[in-house]
From TrEMBL:
PANTHER family: CADHERIN-10, CADHERIN-23
Species in which this protein is naturally found: Rynchops niger (Black skimmer)
GO molecular function ontology, one term from the record: calcium ion binding
Record protein name field: CAD10 protein
A GO cellular component annotation in the UniProt record: adherens junction
One GO BP: cell-cell adhesion mediated by cadherin
CDD domains: Cadherin_repeat
Lineage of the species this protein comes from: Eukaryota, Metazoa, Chordata, Craniata, Vertebrata
Length: 711
């Protein structure tokens, strides 16, 4: 209120600043300030305003502008709130009393510096007596000892936050906390049975799973993991146990082959122990358990068992047929001890060289042996029970054929030997060696000699399985003897001694001074002076050029023969396509009559067949019966005239070319042999001028006319 205000209404009060005109208004006559609505301190705690008095008429200020602050005093109008409606927390089971679980915090929008409006106190509405909450901090703690997850895992706790220090009249808010007890290893594994019985057939192979054992553990996760092992029993060397991680089972498997006849019952002591033990809970142990597993072996009809896993027999290749080379033995492992029958797998003895006695397993030869053909024979012997032939066992039998000296040595290769005419005595002309199919233990040793004393050549043994052929005289003449045959005896050193005679063919040849062969013919042939290479090449080229010219000429001639005889674009043969008419074939006696195109009423006379020779050479002419077919007749006459005057026209019947079939056409025959002119006017002498290919026609028609005249 201004001191200048006389109360006469000459002054006017105005207001500016925070909320002026909206939240706050001023009475322009009295200067009183009013709030237009309820003010919330939590939105804004104070407002700065400026007021001034002005002359209503001149609008000039009568006093300086005044600034003042409106401060909003707080009241308890906001309840405490939690940031989360639902909290989730966990705490290990068996935790001691007072173990912290989680802390919850509520906020109050009221002014904490003014009274107790923002002072919050926490309390528990639900969850006792298991949990408690600190009033000032909101920390939730366990309230009971040894809470067991296996008894109860989930808890729901309701926490209240109240302002005004928890006094009556204060506002409050709540939240829910879901608490889960996490697992600890406080439970040992336990077998549900103290004794477990299992069965397995004696034929089960090593590694076969017999069955499983499982110990239960109330814990979860790694706290429930169990390891199994066999700690005692009479079958510790016969069986194994493997822990299955995903199912936490112990799988018992076969470690060694079982035999019902040897032992029928095994007893195992199996232990299950936790792999992760918490030292805090040792007092609850021990964290392991044991059970007894009894395994019964069941009898099965087992196949025969051989005395060995394989057999090796050695025999000489010269033994007689039917000789026993060895014996295999097998027995029935069952208590019944059934007799055994033996046989050979013929797929391993396709040549049937061996056989076996079915009763005693003796293997003997049925065909001669030859080490040089096959040194080893791999057989398969089958043993089967007589009472159960389907139950069989196989064993490999290896037969090694021992060598006997039954092959004579021979020349190692074919020798092409020659001796020079000017050779001297003692000159080397060939070195020979030998081979033998046998394989003696001491190695090969050969001896070389001549079958008889030879005046021309001799053999000198080198004592290293080779020998040298030497001359015994000076000079040889190919004109006297061109070839010598030298028998050489080759012997081995084994028992019995084997020998063979090989013949060397030695040619007499002319040689130069160095001993190089020049000619081995009996007579020197004088060859005429031959043509040079260039001359031969020139002759071949000329022959090739002549052949090419002949081929081209023949091709051009053939091409000229294939040119069409009728080249006119108006070839009447093409018109059959536009008519779209198809002939009836050889058996059609009523051929299509072109006269029906112009004269449907044409007289149908007897038609001649085109596929047989007519009795008369010329068909009597017909007179057109219809006056309206002149255009067709004129057209055909025009074409006929062109062919009559054309010396290159073909001699065959042109009607087939035009594709007009039948005799009764109004146009009559189009053949150049049966022209529209009279018989007397037609002259066929020009046929002789066409060449030798038309001589036959000239004889037929030219000769026919003369014969007719003479007759």
């Amino acid at each position: 209120h201004s001191d200048q205000d006389k109360g006469d209404g000459s002054l006017k009060y105005i207001l500016s600043g925070d909320g002026a005109g909206t939240l706050f208004i001023i009475d322009e006559k009295t200067g009183d300030i009013h709030a237009t609505r309820r003010i919330d301190r939590e939105e804004k705690a104070f407002y700065t305003l400026r007021a001034q008095a002005i002359n209503r008429r001149t609008l000039r200020p009568v006093e300086p502008e005044s600034e003042f602050v409106i401060k909003i005093h707080d009241i308890n109008d906001n309840e405490p709130t939690f940031p989360e409606e639902v909290y989730t927390a966990s705490v290990p089971e068996m935790s001691v009393v007072g173990t912290s679980v989680v802390q919850v915090t509520a906020t109050d929008a009221d002014d904490p510096s003014y009274g107790n409006s923002a002072r919050v106190i926490y309390s528990i509405l639900q969850g006792q007596p298991y949990f408690s909450v600190e009033p000032e901090t909101g920390i939730i703690r366990t309230a009971l000892p040894n809470m067991n997850r296996e008894n109860r895992e989930q808890y729901q706790v309701v926490i209240q936050a109240k302002d005004m220090g928890g006094q009556m009249g204060g506002l409050s808010g709540t939240t829910t906390v879901n608490i889960t007890l996490t697992d600890v290893n406080d439970n040992p594994p336990r077998f549900p049975q103290s004794t477990i019985h299992l069965r397995i057939p004696e034929s089960s192979p090593v590694g076969t799973a017999i069955g499983s054992v499982k110990a239960t553990d109330a814990d979860t996760g790694k706290n429930a993991e169990v390891e199994y092992r066999i700690i005692d029993g009479d079958g510790t060397d016969m069986f194994d146990i493997v822990t299955q991680k995903d199912t936490q089972e112990g799988i018992i498997t076969v470690r060694k082959p079982l035999d019902y006849e040897t032992r029928r019952l095994y007893t195992l002591k199996v232990e299950a122990e936790n792999t992760h033990v918490d030292p805090r809970f040792y007092y609850l142990g021990p964290f392991k358990d044991t059970t007894i597993v009894k395994i019964s072996v069941e009898d099965v009809d087992e196949p025969p068992v051989f005395s060995r896993s394989s057999y090796l027999f050695e025999v000489h290749e010269d033994i007689e047929l039917g000789t026993i080379i060895g014996t295999v033995m097998a027995r029935d492992p069952d208590s019944a001890s059934s007799p055994i029958r033996f046989s050979l797998d013929r797929h391993t003895d396709l040549d049937r060289i061996f056989n076996i006695h079915s009763g005693n397993g003796s293997i003997y030869t049925s065909k001669p042996l030859d080490r040089e053909i096959s040194q080893w024979h791999n057989l398969s012997v089958i043993a089967a029970e007589i009472n159960n032939p389907k139950d069989t066992t196989r064993v490999p039998v290896y037969v090694r054929i021992l060598d006997v000296n039954d092959n004579a040595p021979q020349f190692a290769v074919f020798y092409d030997t020659f001796v020079c005419e000017n050779a001297r005595a003692g000159q080397l002309i060939q070195t020979i060696s030998a081979v033998d199919k046998d394989d003696p233990l001491g190695g090969q040793k050969f001896f070389f000699s001549l079958a008889a004393v030879n005046p021309n050549f001799t053999v000198q043994d080198n004592e290293d399985n080779t020998a040298r052929i030497l001359t015994r005289r000076n000079g040889f003449s190919r004109h006297e003897i061109s070839t010598y045959l030298l028998p050489v005896v080759i012997s081995d050193n084994d028992y019995p001694i084997q020998s063979s005679t090989g013949t060397l063919t030695i040619r007499v040849c002319a040689c130069d001074s160095r001993g190089n062969m020049q000619s081995c013919n009996a007579e020197a042939l004088l060859l005429p002076a031959g043509l040079s290479t260039g001359a031969l090449v020139a002759i071949l080229l000329c022959i090739i050029i002549l052949l090419v010219i002949v081929v081209l000429f023949a091709a051009l001639k053939r091409q000229r023969k294939k040119e069409p005889l009728i080249l006119s674009k108006e070839d009447i043969r093409d018109n059959i396509v536009s008519y779209n008419d198809e002939g009836g074939g050889e058996e059609d006696t009523q051929a299509f009559d072109i006269g029906t195109l112009r004269n449907p009423a044409a007289i149908e006379d007897k038609k001649l067949r085109r596929d047989i020779i007519p009795e008369t050479l010329f068909v009597p002419r017909r007179t057109p019966s219809a006056p309206d077919n002149t255009d067709v007749r004129d057209f055909i006459n025009q074409r006929l005239k062109e062919h009559d005057t054309d010396p290159s026209a073909p001699p065959y019947d042109s009607l087939a070319t035009y594709a007009y079939e039948g005799n009764d056409s109004i146009a009559e025959s189009l053949s150049s042999l049966e022209s529209g002119t009279t018989e007397g006017d037609q002259n066929y002498d020009y046929l002789r001028e066409w060449g030798p290919r038309f001589n036959k026609l000239a004889e037929m028609y030219g000769g026919g006319e003369s014969d007719k005249d003479t007759s």
